[in-house]
Amino acid sequence: MNFYDGLTFPAAGVIPFEHHRAHTPLYYGIQFNTSGTLRVRINRGREHTLTGPACFITHPGAFFEYSLAPGERHDFTFFCFTGPRVQEYLRSGLLDLTPMPAAISREHKFAETLRELLRQRELGNYPESVNLLESLLIQLRRQTQISAFLYQTPRLQELVHELRAHPERDWDFEKEAGRLSISTQHFRRIFRRHTGDSPQHYLIQLRLAQAANRLAHSEKPIGMIAAEVGFEDVFYFSHLFRKYYGIPPKKYREEFFA
């Protein structure tokens, strides 16, 4: 028996804009909303409303209703899986069906893993897909285990929301620490606990993600896009973009408009 046996991946994809679904799934599924407002209701219970990066697990035996608000960009990503290996995930606690929909604080790593999972599935690389799926499930378990510590400071939660909405602004994290009445060192520590990254690194990733979206959906010059998302030096922007995405901005755009 192959070590990776016991899974199939019947469906996966990305829904960029408005969407509504109400059903009892045939498969297990990771449902990840990148941005915008997501509403989820399970077994016709209380409705949960989440904004920004959020994830929930769909599964057979429960009725799920979820919708993406109109007029917003979401890039909602779903990945479905099934097979006898899932029972091992349930028995071991790797897959927990009890948590409610949750905000994802370390969304960059989660989103990157999910994107790579979709790519490997498309390529037919089965062992790599199993590894990436299990990595996502581990990240979800860690998310729920540390959730009690994530929202100690409402202002910090508000700040992260503002960063996601406006990464292009000239942010001064020493001033933000002062607004929280804590030292800069302590601010960096709790920010990393909340997001998994330092404030500056988190901001850079947000700006690059915003730039990638504009490169894919507009024909503005690269230098203009760099300036719009907060990079004054287009050469520095190009260097960072290639470092994070593996290809230059121009090549990234060409792949979308090919």
Please describe the topology of this protein.
Blueprint: E1 12-15, E2 19-23, E3 28-33, E4 37-42, E5 47-51, E6 54-58, E7 64-68, E8 76-81, H1 85-92, E9 102-103, H2 107-123, H3 126-150, H4 154-165, H5 173-179, H6 184-195, H7 199-217, H8 222-228, H9 234-245, H10 249-257
Antiparallel strand pairs: 1-8, 2-7, 3-6, 3-8, 4-5, 4-7, 6-9
Helix pairs in contact: 2-3, 5-6, 7-10
N-to-C order of helices and strands: EEEEEEEEHEHHHHHHHHH
Physical arrangement of strands within the biggest beta sheet: 1-8-3-6-9
Secondary structure category: alpha+beta
Outline type: globular
The number of helices is 10
- What Rg do the Cα atoms give? 19 Å
State the gist of this model.
With 258 residues, this protein is α+β, with helices and mostly antiparallel strands.
Output the keywords.
five-stranded antiparallel beta sheet, alpha+beta, 258 residues, four-stranded antiparallel beta sheet, 10 helices
Structure, explained:
By secondary structure, the chain is an alpha+beta fold. It has helices at 85-92, 107-123, 126-150, 154-165, 173-179, 184-195, 199-217, 222-228, 234-245, 249-257; strands spanning 12-15, 19-23, 28-33, 37-42, 47-51, 54-58, 64-68, 76-81, 102-103. A hairpin with a 4-residue loop joins strand 4 (37-42) and strand 5 (47-51). Helix 2 (107-123) packs antiparallel against helix 3. The protein is globular. The termini are far apart. Residues 147-152 have low confidence and may be disordered.
